[in-house]
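Exam prep: given the inputs below (a chain plus S-adenosylmethionine), describe the expected output before reading on.
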Amino acid sequence: MKQSKTISENKNRDIIKEIGKNILMGIPAFRRWRATRPRSGAYFTGEDAELERYAFSGLNMLRDHIGDISGKSILEIGAGDFLTSGLAMLGAGAESYGVIDNFPGDYTGAAAKRWYQAIEENWSRFYPKLSWAENIRAADFPEKYAERLELIAKPIETSATKKKYEIICSFQVVEHISDIDAFAEMHNRLLAPGGVAIHRVDFGPHDCWFYYRDPLTYLQFSDSVWKMSGSNRGTPNRFRHHEFLAAFERANLQVEVPRTDNFKEHLINFDNLHPRFKKMPHESLLVGTAIYILSRKLL
Ligand SMILES: C[S@@+](CC[C@H](N)C(=O)[O-])C[C@H]1O[C@@H](n2cnc3c(N)ncnc32)[C@H](O)[C@@H]1O
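Solution:
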């Protein structure tokens, strides 16, 4: 949620570029080529900060907000290119790990293996008080653990799993899904009785909008223009904090919000927002990231 970097801002030029990229992504051959390129996380180059961000941050969030995960079944939505957070969770003692990602990465290629090896090798430095689980070896991951893994290459909105999970989690994913009611309702389908879900949502700008001084510049476009710039690319859905809370309420879920981080108010020009957003509560528009903890209400 960086807000200070300035560039030469030209909204019209940038939205046209984004529409161009979206048109390219609508061409099947281009899309196939793009699918071979890593996205988030890319390659591990040996930096601790990379491990922290792409391997351990999900596990840390579970440990901070849910507690000990040993023996738990965990389902992650939108793991990204590799099963880095999954291996870390299994290393911390999780019993099983499932992932649902409609655009999965290459989980078994050389780049993935380099990540997995680094996670096990560096474990004791990051977690001096937490032993690496004896029943998992990075060198054999993921091939030899089929019975502890469930890998589903479909959108979360409609996915079914073989079993219900005790923990469902996602990190920087929910701002990309298209149907937030289907997302909320999914918990009633996939969460085990007594289970808990945790989602970190990034309401900030992505792509070129990230470099604009006003972090909500990307809310200045109409829905139809926004769709033209991102319908083939999974750009943010632009749902706001209060809309997620309402969707969780409609799905009859119990919600806790242990943490939000706000944008700096003085950077936002509320008058420039598209009318759809202009009428929204400012306290919701100001939320830059949020962590939601959800459980099913007792009937
Ligand atoms: C921004 S990446 C985040 C990756 C990773 N969680 C991280 O923090 O680096 C979003 C991920 O969510 C997946 N995704 C987006 N929409 C989805 C959906 N409707 N169902 C399942 N996965 C989805 C994408 O394919 C991608 O892997």
